[in-house]
Amino acid sequence: MGCDTNCGLLTGAIIGAVLAVLGGVLIPVGDNLIGKAVKKEAVIVNGTTAFQNWLVPGSTVYREFWIFHVLNPSEVIDEGAQPKFEQRGPYTYRVRYLPKENVTENENGTISYMLPNIANFEPDMSIGTENDNVTVLNLAVVYNGTSDGPYSVYTGTEDISKTAIIESYKNKRTLSYWPDHCDMVNGTDGASFPPFVKKNQVLRFFSSDICRSIYGVFHSKQVVKGITLYRFIVPREAFASPAEVRDNYCFCTDPVISENCTLAGVLDISACKAKRPVYISLPHFLHASESVLHNVEGLSPDEKEHETYLDIEPVTGFTLRFAKRLQVNLLVQPSTRIDPLKKVKKPYVFPLLWLNESAVIGDEKAEMFRAKISSRLQLLSTLQMVLIIGGSVAFLAFLGSYFIFRSKKLK
Fold first, then answer.
1. Among 354, 306, 336, 378, which Cα is nearest to 88's?
2. Domain segments of the chain: what residues?
C-alpha cells in the first residue's frame, strides 16, 4: 500500500513536470507554427487572405468634411480684420469601396496597381446637401473621379519583412517635391504593414494627400470586435519645426513664412499642388505654433478628436481600424493687385476645411479574422498557460504530498 502511494505521488509529480515542460516547449513551437502560417497567408499573392484584404477594402471607408465658414467676410476684405470661423459639417462621402485597378504582378517580387478615387455623397450621414452655401476662400481642393498611382509594392514572397512596403510611386522612389530624405517614399500605403508588428517599432507610411511620407508610434492597446490591436498615432514630432526636430529641416521651404523654420504644425505642399499656396495641417491646427492659431478665431484643437491613428493587428500587420485626419489651408499674403487681399496686414495660414477619413473592420471580415487568426492564437496561448500553470501546480502538489507522506511513514 505504501509503495503504491509513493509511486502514485511520484508519478503525479512527474506527469505535472512533463506537462509544465510541454507548455514551455509549446511557446517556441507554437510561435514557429504561427510564423509559418502567417508567412503563408500574409504575402500579397492571389489566393492568400492578405491578397483579398489588400485588393478590396474589408470595411466601408467614409470621408467626412467640416468646412470653415467665414462669419465676417466684409471685415476681412474691407478692413483686413482677423477672420472668424464657424465649423460646418460633416459632409460625408463613401470612398475606397472599389477594388484596386490595373493590378499587375511583376517579376521582381512586387505588384503594381492604381487606387480609384471615387466618392459618393451620403446624405443620411451629413448635416446638409452638396448645394449648401458657405463662405470660404475660392479653391477647388477635391478632384473626384481620378485615380492615384501607380503604386508598386513588395508582395513579401522573397522577404516577409518587406510585405506591402512601397517599391515605387508613379514609377519613382522619390517625389521631386522636397530636398534630401524628405523626398523619399517610405513604408506602406497605411492599409497594412509587414507582419509581426512590435510596440517599439516606428511604422512608416506614405500619403499622397499630404505629398510626403510620415510615421506612427505605439500609443496603446485596443480591442475591436474581440480582436486585440495596437494603436499607432502620428506624433506631434512629425509636424514639429526643424528647430525642435532637426530631421524636419527639409520640409521647411520658405524661411520667411516659416519664421526662420521655427513654425510648427503646418506644411507647405504647393510644390505638388500646381504651385497653389496650399498648406496642410492637423485639424484646428493641432500641434501647431501658437502664432498660427492667434491669426484666426473659432478654432479649438482637441487631441482626441483631431489626431490621426492606425489600429493594427500585430501578428498579420493588417490595419483594422483607422482615422486619418488633416486640414487644408491657404496661405494669404498682402497683394496690391488682388482687391480682397489689399488690406491683408501680414501673411497667415487661412483654414478652408478639415477631413476625417475613417473605417473599422466589418462584422463579416471580423468574424473571419477571429476564426482564422485571433481564436487560434488565443487557443494556443490558453493551452500554453494551462499546461505550464496546471503542470507546475500538479508537480508541486504531488511532490509535496510525497514528502509529507514519506515523513509520516518514517515516524
1. 354
2. 1-58+379-411, 59-361
